[in-house]
Amino acid sequence: MTRSNQSNILIRLWSGFWRGVTALRMFVFNVLFLLVLALVLALVFSGTDKLALESDTTLVMNPRGIIVEEYVGSPVERAINEALGQEARQTRLRDIVAALDYAAEDDRITQVLISTDRLIGVAPGVMQELSDAFEQFSASGKSVIAYGGWMGQGQYFLSSLADELWLNPEGSVLLEGYGFYRQYFSEGLEKLDVDVNLIRVGEYKSAMEPFIRSDMSDEDREATEYFLGDLWQRYLEMAARNRGMPMEMLADLTENLGDYLAQADGDMARMAKEQGLVDRLVTRPEFRSEMALRGAPDDRDGFRSIGMESYVQGMQAQIRRPKDQVGVIVAQGLITEGNQPPGTIGSESTSRLIRQALNDDDIKAVVLRVDSGGGSAFASEVIRRELLSLRDAGKPVVVSMGNVAASGGYWIAMGADEIWAYPSTITGSIGIFGFFPTFQNTLARIGIHTDGVGTTPYAGALRSDRAMADEVRELLQSFIENGYREFIGLVAEHRDMTLDEVDSVAQGRVWSGAQAQQRGLIDQLGTLDQAIASAARIAGLGEDYQVRYVEPELKPWQQFLTQMGARAITAAGFEPRGGMLDMLPVDARARLVRDLRMLYESTEGGGRPGVIAHCLCDAPL
Question: Is 407 a residue of the active site?
Fold first, then answer.
């Protein structure tokens, strides 16, 4: 081959390469152009903030997923993940309450529909909040209808708040009771030759028992049965009262479900109707026709309606905002160090919100809304001190406990002027532990060994590929015990109790909110609204004040993507794609991710042992 031919081949290859790069570049630019164009069009045609409603409109309360205090993740991440189908839907409790408040005074809203088909569950704590919200709405004289197919106890409780409860004839109601079950890994870890170095204080501090046992300890069983039985008793009382039946009758139904189902020839819907769990069995076409007769017909859904989220957004854009404010800071999720997105409590990010409230002259008092089983003891202490600085500046701090405020969740709450909780809040768990697994034996199985020298007994002692030395274990035990003494000492100081009094109700034991009040760990039982009213009273505010959630301020481009990004990405043709974890059941996937993340975060990515104040006691659904 001549030099000229070789040169021509190289030129053609080079030219082909650049044509490919140019084509790829144009494709990427075109995709970006379409995304931007879709965003702009969505913004242009999204309409104004003014809410235009016709008369005889039905407000549809259609909660999706889990009812939460705040959305998990940053607004931009949520918008994108929602469009890609990678995020479980959530419904904020505050939106449900606000929608009912607005609808009670809105003459355009004729009735409210509760639809439970997309709801995963309702935790015991927020049931009181929901009950109070619907009770206040009932004073407007407007009717509430609930309709669904399959109803577990969470869906059923929400539906029981309605004036009429309709069930699809092919549907069912299943009230299985509350359970607390965990997987225990001790035998499996032994087979893998993993050393579990667990240092804990507290007879009932059972959060990490799955790593050192193959079954539930007697202490954990005793404590769990005690608070779980209280939660279930309260569920039965509230649901039975909502349905106008004796509590004993509902309890009998749950205990002898098989017998009652057999009497109905195995027909779950018929059994629910015969036993008074529901009022009517209604097919979907019958449902739409009935709703149209009670409201107004509509060509799209059969009856004129507006969704809860659209209604709340439209109404909030029109309300007058008084200058005096009570700021609400949400502390939801695992407590860890550093900056964290919403849905996780970060020592830096949550402290920044507290300082934001401190520096805002319009905010006269703060309510910390806690929904957390705990996490890093160090991060919890950082947040507690920030709240004390807020109090020292003359701004009252009131804590409102949600579903769970235990261990680290209690730590950040104990310094408030007042602590409020629901009767069914899971709280207490005053205790800490340290956890640091080592894998030297596991690695030895495949011929990997670690050896070397250090200048002190502690040099390289906290490596996950080396066995933990006795002197290191003793050091950590002393450190953890000191942390426990600090924890109960702070509780004694803030709650005006003796150390012995605190220790007797601490030891890592979990209580319901009502049980915690009896033991002096909280001040009042009540809702978030009542806690806000109390904060306003302490601050000396009148009746005319605004409730404002203190949240990270978004930059303009973040606001734009949050409002329009999900719709634009979907419009551009991107389809949701699942991952490997999608093969697992939803609940198992959630537990796996939660537990692994808690361990990873608490050990700083495996770099050091974590001092953890966590109960691993999620609220049952």
Answer: yes
